Amino acid sequence: xxxxxxxxxxxxxxxxxxxxARTPAIDRIGASQRRYSYASWTAPSxxxxxxxxxxxxxxPGVLSSEAHRRDLSLWQTRIGGPRDMALTFADFAPTLSLPxxxxxxxxxxxxxxxxxxxxxxxxxxxxxxxFELMPVHNDLRAIIGRLSFDGTPRFIFINTGETHxxxxxxxxxxxxxxxxxxxxxxxxxxxDFLKGAQASAGDGATASFDVERLRPLWQKQVRCIEHLDGxxxxxxxxxxxxxxxxxxxxxxxxFGEGGYFGHGPVIHEKVFEVxxxxxxxxxxxxRTSCENELEATVLGRLKRLGYL
Length: 308
Known about the structure:
Number of domains: 1
Strand order of the largest sheet: 2-9-6-1-5-3-4
Low-confidence stretches: 199-204, 287-293
Number of helices: 11
Radius of gyration: 20 Å
Strand content: 15-25%
CATH superfamily: Alkaline Phosphatase, subunit A
CATH architecture: 3-Layer(aba) Sandwich
Shape: globular
CATH class: Alpha Beta
Largest sheet: 7 strands, mixed
Distance between the termini: 32 Å
């Protein structure tokens, strides 16, 4: 029997924000790992995900081809079920598409995304049976409410934006936090920009970002992760016991470090550093609930102490 696979991406969630957050539900899935994104913003990092490549370990002394083969072969564990041979790179060729590959195995493929750069008209939507852009960018619980499971194995890919600027939870406007003008105006103001005097090369305005002034934004991102952890707990209860969970971020975020804010056309460790957690559902029945709770407590404590 094939596992259901649920992959949840906390958009822009920084690694140290995740480590600072209380995440008892996610801790039940597995221990968090420090990984690195293939890209510094949403669209290209999600293209890597949907090639079957989660954030990488950035290990020295390992050929990139070997790292890719190893990462792709791990889908054998995630998928479960009987297979005559271990997965290889050739299983993903020539489309290099994870949803296309899973559909060949009998999966129904669904995606629910919160960022407009991942809308159904973009290339990333190919090979999904269902691909929906949610009406708001910050409501994972609304996505969970749309999910249904039956005897058909499901691959469900979710992008949620509570951890994206302005770090607002459902019903909030973020008005009490520092405001960064222009963050949401890239596409909206592009025509006016191109028509104006700023269209000439090198005319962009320079901003100055103060780390201490922006610290409340980092703290709010931590709180947003804790909110999402509660939603993940609900997702664990909704999904069948034979579900493999993956929870990660597509890239990090900068809160004034090095003179940067946000992500995108930025080269900085904090924008590539992400968290990654995966494992079978805590409801899988392979262990008792007491053992699951004990492991969650131990892993959570080790994470807070900096050992994980």
